[in-house]
Description:
Blueprint: H1 3-10, E1 13-18, H2 24-33, E2 45-46, E3 55-59, E4 62-63, H3 64-76, E5 82-86, H4 88-92, E6 102-104, E7 114-116, H5 123-139
Parallel strand pairs: 1-2, 1-3, 3-5, 5-7
Antiparallel strand pairs: 4-6
Helix pairs in contact: 2-5
Amino acid sequence: MGLRKWGRKKSPWILHVPTGGCNGCDIEIVAALTPRFDVERLGILQVASPRHADILMVTGPVTQQIRDRLKRLYELVPKPVAVIGVGTCTISGGVFAGSYAVTGPLDQVIPVDVYVPGCPPRPQAIIHGVAKALEKLEKMK
């Protein structure tokens, strides 16, 4: 196993991208980082730059205003990258579905590897989604 692949498995870095919505999923992601769940002890870190990320975690419905920026962020993340869609809004638009500002589900904008359903999903489900994304990253070259 190469050093880079080992490091990615042991310490995945996540870029969190909120694309609009109620911020319920964002609060649950922050809860996963707090001492109660403490994902940092597992090596999972949240980063601010797409150039450092291994996993792209998207929350909220994809709005027209952020669609092109989200595509650009996806292009900036080094490949291979796993994309996690957190919450019902990324899957179907949730309560915002049919709005003039929502362009559609996340998978119509960028490829998605793992969905974490819920409105909002619990921190345990988000951590499980990261574990599933890591499995997919291991299989990618």
